[in-house]
Amino acid sequence: MCRNITVLRGLEPAATSEEIYAAALQYVRKVSGVGSLSATTREPIERAAAEVAKITEALLEELPERRVPPQKVPPLRRPEVRARLGLD
After folding, report:
1. In a domain, 5, yes or no
2. How far apart are CA 28 and CA 61, in angstroms?
3. CA triplet 45, 39, 28: central angle to 5 degrees?
4. Mean of the pLDDT values across residues 19-36?
5. 78 CB contacts (<8 Å, ≥6 apart)?
6. Does some domain include residue 8?
7. Which residue range(s) make up the domain with 30?
8. Whole-prediction pTM value?
9. Per the domain annotation, does 44 fall within a domain?
């Protein structure tokens, strides 16, 4: 499994939809073996990522609170990543 997917449960503040979708997209790309999106792969990959994100949001809502927050900060919360992606 992809070791780079960050734990989202227990974040303060809670994981955003953007963070959940980013993790879902990373998971779908990993299991599908699609490294970069093309005209033929974009739609099925994005559709699958949206479904995984929806299921993940439901899962995070159902699980009990964590006693200890995750040790790693999600990539979308890191200034250097946001700057590289042009999100700030």
Report:
1. no
2. 21
3. 15
4. 93
5. none
6. no
7. 17-85
8. 0.83
9. yes
**Alpha-carbon distances of 54 from 20, 49, 51, 61, 69, rounded to whole Å:** 9, 9, 5, 11, 22
Contact 24, 52 (CB under 8 A): yes
Both tokens of 71, joined, read 């040790």
Specify if 62 maps to a domain: yes
Spatial CA neighbour of 11 closest among 56, 81, 68, 87: 68
What is the number of structural domains in the chain?
A: 1
pLDDT tens sequence across 40-77: 999 999 999 999 999 999 999 999 998 888 888 888 88
